[in-house]
Design brief:
3-stranded antiparallel β-sheet; 266 residues; single chain; alpha/beta
């Protein structure tokens, strides 16, 4: 899977410890092995994406195995289709889902995230994969490079995803269902407001192959309660009363509820 320069769009090649394009735009390969291809003009803040603390919480939670049913559903769907890569994970976070999928398929993996802290953590642990700091809106990968693109609990940008997928390639989308983590929400919010959610959207340029509901109970205790909370968008919405209730919660049994949508590029 060839990378392209985020400045001029030409192909990048490795020279010493850098990626360099024919126009001599260069990007250093960090000590951990990742490369920052997020152009300054594409950053919406000084340090976009998850913080170091959020990344650590997500890693501790996911490595606890609580969300293995989601990971296993991805692996099963890819195997059912006979996919073998290359795999591109957009919004990869600290890499747990993507690395498990790539290992199961024996596939080449490129993961990208806008958070440099997340990508640094992924690169430090999963050495056999390639990790990029980049934005999903401008993926620094050549046209038609990926056989499988995954985006889990993250943005979906159909036009850009279709560009980087090979003809007939697949897009695996995981979206939270309406009843996802109602137990956690019941603690942190004074009232729950249910909103209808389209969990199987029509995507231009793609054909829906199948939609797989994923729903299971899990129990977290002690620090894992806070880790679960820290890896959700509720981190930025919680009020004072909810924060106090959450601090006093030592055990939480909740339901993970999401949908795996498998799309094929037309």
């Amino acid at each position: 899977m060839n990378l392209i320069c985020p400045v001029c769009g030409e192909q990048l090649n490795i020279r010493d410890r850098q990626y360099v394009c024919p126009q001599q735009h260069s990007f250093d390969i960090a000590r951990q092995g990742h490369v920052n291809l997020l152009a300054v003009q594409l950053k919406h803040s000084k340090n976009p994406g998850d913080t170091k603390e959020q990344v650590a919480s997500r890693r501790e939670f996911l490595e606890g195995g609580f969300y293995e049913p989601i990971s296993n559903a991805l692996i099963d769907a890819a195997r059912d289709l006979g996919l073998s890569g290359p795999v591109l994970d957009v919004g990869c976070g600290e890499g747990w889902y993507a690395a498990r999928l790539a290992d199961a398929l024996g596939a080449e993996l490129t993961g990208l995230d806008i958070s440099k802290e997340a990508v640094r953590a992924a690169a430090a642990k999963y050495k056999r994969c390639r990790w990029l700091v980049a934005t999903a809106a401008h993926i620094p990968v050549e046209d038609g490079a990926a056989q499988l693109l995954t985006s889990l609990f993250a943005l979906t940008l159909p036009e850009e995803f279709a560009r980087v997928l090979a003809p007939g390639g697949y897009f695996f989308q995981v979206v939270a269902a309406e009843d996802h983590l109602l137990g956690l929400k019941g603690i942190i919010y004074d009232e729950l407001h249910h909103k209808q959610k389209d969990t199987v959207p029509d995507l231009p340029g793609f054909t829906l192959v199948k939609s797989v509901p994923i729903r299971f109970l899990f129990t977290v205790e002690g620090p894992q309660v806070q880790n679960l909370f820290a890896m959700t968008p509720h981190l930025f919405r919680i009020g004072r009363n909810g924060a106090e209730r959450l601090r006093n919660t030592q055990t939480l049994t909740d339901t993970a509820s999401c949908v795996l949508n498998v799309y094929r590029r037309r």
